[in-house]
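agent: user wants the full assembly modeled, not chains individually. Plan: 1) parse entity lines 2) check alphabet per entity 3) run joint structure prediction 4) return tokens. Steps 1-2 passed, two entities, 469 residues total. Proceeding.
--- entities ---
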Amino acid sequence: MEEKQTKPQTEYSGHYRELFYSFRSDGTFNKEVRLHDDSDKLFINQAWEVFDERIENALRKVLAGKVSPIVYYMEKDLLDPLSLAMQAGIPLWRVKWHFRPGIFKRLKAETLQKYASVFSITVKPLKQVE
Amino acid sequence: MEQTNILIDYTHHQAGHCESGTTSNLCRHYGLDLSEPMAFGIGNGLYFSYIPFLKVQYAPMISFRNIPNTGFRRATRRIGADATVIKKFKNPKESMDALDRNLEKGIPTGMQVGVFHLTFFPPEYRMQYNMHNMVAYGKKGDTYYISDTVLEQPQTISYEDLQRVRWAKGAFAPNGKMYWITRVGTQVDLRKAVSDGIAKTVYEMIKIPFPLIGTKGMRVLAKHVRKWPSKLGNEKASFYLGQILRMAEEVGTGGAGFRFIYGAFLKEAGERFKVTGLLEAAEVMGKTANKWREFSYIGARNCKNRSEPVEDYGMLGDMLVDISFMEEEMFKKLEHIRF
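--- prediction returned ---
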């Protein structure tokens, strides 16, 4: 989780060179190691903007008491309800049921532990988001 | 406990795609000079599927590659190498012990891993994706030496972290899957291998009687792309488009959703076996790959400002239809080339 915070906030791409192939007009295929194109950066950045927005929204909703903290941690780990259900080993409909704050408060310790291990945190921060 | 210190003399080559890259690197380790495009083509890397009802990170699932590990299995089978794949382990401890035993015997071992908790992976590519491949080629104490073909340099990873990524959960969970080659024969019939590989790819791209797979799938995608702005609104349409482009271009595709690598494969095969049909096909493949690049170039402009599309989605759909027909025609010609 530590890398999460150090993730660059403005520029999301352009630090790692990859191997790209290209096709030239003379009919040869060419290999080169380079950074992503500027056009590629547009959609990579967009994706991260969308995910960051989702994380912020989720945090706001959790703090307002509209949804349970599971939603925030789910967005933070770039999960969707289905993959969260698969990783926690809990049926999808129950995961969605646990998104309600009232239901979340009454969860058993075992179930909380299942979620906590997916997010690799302990139960305490899972219950209380700040 | 004494400190283990093993370092296998294994050369790391950077590659476009993780699976064909590891396959080619492993073959080179055993003395067969198999380039990455060749490994990719023989192992049927090329694919296309679009599954609108399955959402990955809130966007429809689209895949340009085959199911994980088919590439390695098919490539090694066709070139007649002795390869072993262990699909599943009972528990993490056992899988790590098996890896250690392999390294002690001096066998560089490939593994399927999840990307999200991979410590050395570029942070911008972090996603819940379990189909990545890498090779372990040494161990010192509790640190493993890893060759990851996406990155320029070999990396290291600790025991706990490696165990964790090998036991990532979710869709296509690796369950500790590992694979290795023990021997590559000296007399490899590459001609037969290439011919079989092409035939299978042709089948997978144009012959599977299911509308969402192969070139037919591209046309379904085109139809949906046209409808997105009116059906979902501009913001969501732009996000969906961006996710498609990410799958095609972002990480480990060599550009244009593997089309460049496949073109390079056809070219290499054509030159090696002196088949003009393959060279022509390579030319067409290169052109379609450039079209894919153009598609992502133009599509990316719609991702700049999510609420105001610059380009028309209808036009993007038309481009996809063009590409699909170009590819389909090429595969139909490839089907009849015998060599």
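agent: reporting back. Strands of chain B lie at 5-7, 46-56, 59-65, 82-86, 109-113, 132-140, 143-147, 155-158, 178-183. Chain B has two domains: 5-33+82-183, 190-335.
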